Amino acid sequence: MVKYQVLYWKHVPSQVKVFEEGKRPLSRPIPESLVEIDRIAMEEGITGTDAYLSHWQWTPKLEREGSQQEVAEALIRELQEAAHGKGESQK
After folding, report:
1. Average pLDDT of every residue of the chain
2. Per residue in 63-77, pLDDT tens?
3. Residue ranges per domain, the chain?
4. Whole-structure pTM value
5. Angle at the Cα of 49 (from 13 to 36), degrees rounded to 5?
6. DSSP assignment of 14-78
């Protein structure tokens, strides 16, 4: 069992971090998330550093079965599917 967190900018997931006892945390970016974040920030006129930074937020740590690598890969896949509207329809 490992613990994990997801870093969001507003509603857009950007990174996953997976913690396993006795190991260094494993962080993985979510591909293309920064492009989406920048697009939204520009559309909403969020240009100041403070305003931009205020929207970043980590989720609480949650638990999940699997190794660090397995959980990181599964979370990224699930978050990408959800972002593209494929999450529940393919399960």
Report:
1. 91
2. 999 999 999 999 999
3. 2-83
4. 0.87
5. 30
6. EEEEEE-TTS--EEEEPTTHHHHHHHHHHHTT--SHHHHHTTEEEPPPEEESS-HHHHHHHHHHH
